[in-house]
Amino acid sequence: MNLVRADWTDGDIADFLSYLGTLSKGEEKAKWEQRIVNTAMPCLAVPSPEVKRIVKQIAKGNYRAFIQRWCWANFTASAILGQLICYLPFEEQVELLPRYAARTDTWAGTDCLTFDKGAPEAYLAYAKQWIASPHTFLRRLGVIVMLKVLSSDTVDEILAALPSLEAEEAYYVNMAVAWLISDCFIKCREETLAFLDRGQYNTFVSRKAVSKCRDSYRVSAEDKQMLLRYRKK
User: Fold this and answer.
1) Is the pLDDT of residue 230 over 80?
2) How far apart, in whole angstroms, are the C-alpha atoms of residue 103 and residue 5?
3) Which of 6, 96, 156, 220 is the most buried (most CB within 10 A)?
4) Would you tell me how many other CB atoms lie within 10 Å of the CB of residue 161?
């Protein structure tokens, strides 16, 4: 199918969905994908390299017209939509990403997105707003953005924002926070130790973050032992 288009009509989207079906790895793989990503959306089990290829091809044409059709027929189509939103200029991205994240029901819908690391402060400003959202996966998106723009320049601002999630109850948000803290420790050890000393994180996050650090080959044996003191009971 020609994916580089000057426009996308409803008929084109229907053809596109039929095309995605031809790339499916079959019903059993689709059931497996649905269990792994834990979504209520239909799944096709289209291989990730194919999804990336499709996104790049659509982006060569009028991808805004594709985005405007807001195709949400299955998990693959929604992931393609989200990844194309990230091709938009920053101002348009941050207008559409909350709508996208508020609708998705899976961690994979946020984790497949990419962001311009050349503008970390601009993304962080929105991420700090998103982690206050009532929508679970918009909060997760905020944490994922922090994870993807994490550096020695941004770590202090990121860690300063995390106490607002101390009372978080959603599993997929807490898992993202634990992942973020472990990455902060690996990349910015001293700043993260100061954060851990303040104890402004919940029990679940403490256990998962310490576990992720202890599983990492980038953390020394001495630090793996030391980090046990931060695992709340």
Assistant:
1) yes
2) 26
3) 96
4) 17
Q: How big is the chain, counted in residues?
A: 233
Q: What is the pLDDT of residue 91?
A: 94
The answer for residues whose C-beta is within 8 angstroms of residue 205's C-beta and 6 or more apart is 165, 168, 174, 177, 178, 181
Q: Which two tokens stand for residue 217?
A: 């080959």
Domains of the chain: 1-99 (no CATH), 115-233 (1.25.10.90)
Predicted TM-score (pTM) of the model is 0.94
The DSSP line for the chain is -----S---HHHHHHHHHHHHHT---HHHHHHHHHHHT-SS------HHHHHHHHHHHHTS-HHHHHHT---SSHHHHHHHHHHHTTS-HHHHHHHHHHHHHH--SHHHHHT----TT-HHHHHHHHHHHTT-SSHHHHHHHHHHHHHT-STTTHHHHHHHGGGGTT---HHHHHHHHHHHHHHHHH-HHHHHHHHHHT-S-HHHHHHHHHHHHH-TTS-HHHHHHGGGG---
Cα separation, 111 vs 99, in Å, equals: 16
Name the phi and psi angles at 162, rounded to 5: -70, -30
pLDDT of residue 174: 98
Dist CA 45 CA 33 (whole Å)? 6
pLDDT in tens, 103-118: 999 999 999 999 887 7
Query: How many CA atoms lie less than 13 Å away from 215 in the CB half-sphere?
Result: 10
CA geometry: angle 22, 88, 9, nearest 5 deg = 45
